[in-house]
Write a structure and sequence with these properties.
alpha+beta; Rossmann fold; 3 domains; seven-stranded mixed β-sheet; five-stranded antiparallel β-sheet; 20 strands; rod-shaped
Length: 518
């Protein structure tokens, strides 16, 4: 068997221990020959010494250390009797001819450091090196997606392949000359681990499907989201739930395989384990070899939930903005209407102001007229005051006359209402002036037989002061009873009150007692 890219020999000695455990030490020495090659001479020197420190031995079980290693100071040396079955030598996998008729070829984590064209050449050499139906064991990060004519998988998950036998290999395998040697990067194990961990730890869920629909690779994020793990490697993709949930992916994969272009499936809603819904954008990209043959399809599941929520918030903000804009438009229209109404109100107020100014001018004119009228009224008032004073003097004079008369005086109007009732009339009949004035003379309850005076008064009222037909005054003596209840004869003189030449306005009765009767 051949350990290609053996570095410092750990892989070769591990193979030796495994085969010794399976076959037994004696059979191992008889039947097994392990060729271990590398381009690093320093690493090969370390491998030939076959001694390792505690750090290198950390992962080896104690029972294997006891059986296959001998302590050399602080280090451990591989058993010399078994070491003879392991042969180390320098070999450039790109330029040098391969070892032939190998039953098992182990080349883990070396192919991934070369481009596709160089990998094709190396795999052709591996195919040549293996015996018919020989086995090729590759690293976990390495896939033979486009070399089904050379190798067929035995255990794709563990990257174990079987050579496809050919009857005439010499015509099929060509080892072209490469102008310049390709130096492999040092510390391949660390770089392999870095590359593998980079893919596994990617923040985007990724699944790689071969050209024949088999799951080739999957990372931790894909396992977290969809439950697709390394256990599903080698299974048909169509048998997995993720092929149709949350969205149908089998038809887009066929589209990518046929059209050899990137296909995007966006706005995919996905809810896992009863949690909050998330939104995915799925990108399907073709993986094409240097000869344009299809290797497979890479599926990337991008979480666009935050972008979707931002988009929804943006749309909601836009709707709110549109609503606010419509409200603003409505408010603007209302303001324009209000402005027009205010403009109309201003015009009305201006008109009203002009009317008020006109009214003010009219009021000023009226005020001047009223002032003039007030002056006139003041003058008239002064005249009336003078007239009133004169009238008061005349009334006082008349009152004095009426009071000084020894006869009772009663002045009647046309309706025989008492207008004047002097003090002598009060003493004579016992009726106060305020009780007599304003009452009908014929209704007065006094000791004078007033009914007998009715014709006399009527006759006098029908005459005038200068009448020649009728007498302006009449005299009549009537038996009466004064306020003390004494009987007496009272001479009543009834005289007409009328302006000269005019109709009568009333009558004056002069009541003078003549003598008292027993």
């Amino acid at each position: 068997m051949w350990s290609a890219g053996c570095a410092s020999g750990e892989e070769a000695y591990t193979l030796a221990m495994m085969l010794a455990e399976m076959l037994g030490v004696d059979e191992f020495r008889k039947r097994v020959k392990i060729y271990a090659t590398d381009v690093d001479e320093e690493g090969l020197t370390t491998a030939r010494h076959a001694t390792y420190g505690e750090r290198e031995m950390k992962g080896v079980p104690l029972e294997l250390i006891d059986r296959y290693f001998e302590p050399i100071g602080s280090r451990f040396g591989f058993r010399k009797d078994l070491r003879r079955s392991v042969i180390f030598g320098r070999n450039d996998l790109v330029q040098d001819a391969p070892i032939s008729r190998i039953d098992l070829l182990v080349c883990r984590n070396a192919l991934m450091y070369f481009n596709a064209e160089t990998q094709s050449r190396m795999l052709a050499r591996f195919h040549f090196a293996l015996a018919d139906f020989g086995v090729l064991f590759l690293g976990k990060a390495e896939m033979l997606l486009s070399h089904s004519n050379l190798f067929t998988p035995i255990d794709l998950k563990r990257r174990i392949f079987k050579k496809v036998a050919r009857y005439s290999q010499s015509s099929d395998v060509v080892f072209p000359e490469i102008p310049a040697p390709v130096q492999r990067a040092p510390q391949l194990g660390q770089l392999d681990h870095l590359r593998n961990e980079s893919f596994m730890s990617a923040t985007v869920a990724q699944i790689v499907v071969t050209s024949d629909g088999m799951v080739a690779l999957t990372n931790r994020q894909a396992e977290s989201l969809f439950g697709v793990s390394s256990r599903d490697v080698g299974r048909p993709f169509r048998d997995l739930d993720v092929s149709y949930r949350p969205v149908e992916l089998r038809r887009p994969i066929e589209t990518v395989q046929v059209e050899r272009r990137i296909v995007r499936v966006g706005d995919v809603e996905y809810t896992r384990n009863g949690g909050d819904p998330m939104y995915l954008e799925i990108q399907l990209a073709p993986l094409v070899n240097s000869d344009s043959s299809l290797l497979g399809v890479a599926l990337s599941f991008h979480d666009v939930t935050a972008a979707r929520r931002l988009q929804e918030e943006l749309e909601r903000a836009n709707r709110q903005l549109e609503t606010a804009y419509e409200e603003l438009q409505s408010i603007n229209e209302e303001l324009e209407t209000t402005n027009e109404e205010l403009q109309s109100t201003v015009e009305e107020l201006e008109t009203t102001n002009e009317e008020l100014q006109s009214t003010n001018e009219e009021l000023e004119t009226m005020n001047e007229e009223l002032q003039s009228t007030n002056d006139e009224l003041q003058s008239i008032n002064d005249q009336l005051r003078d007239s009133t004073a004169e009238l008061d003097e005349a009334n006082a004079f008349m009152e004095a006359i009426l009071t000084s008369l020894q006869a009772g005086i009663a002045v009647l109007d046309q309706d025989l209402q008492v207008q004047v009732w002097n003090r002598r009339a009060e003493d004579l009949w016992g009726l106060r002036r305020e009780e007599a004035v304003g009452r009908h003379f014929l209704n007065l309850d006094i000791g004078l037989p007033v009914e007998q005076l009715r014709p006399v008064i009527r006759q006098v009222l029908a005459s005038t002061a200068d009448s020649e037909v009728t007498e302006p005054s009449r005299t009549i003596v009537l038996p009466s009873v004064n306020r003390r209840g004494r009987s007496l004869n009272v001479k009543v003189i009834c005289t007409v009150l009328a302006p000269k030449g005019g109709p009568s306005t009333g009558a004056m009765l002069v009541m003078e007692p003549e003598d008292e009767r027993p």
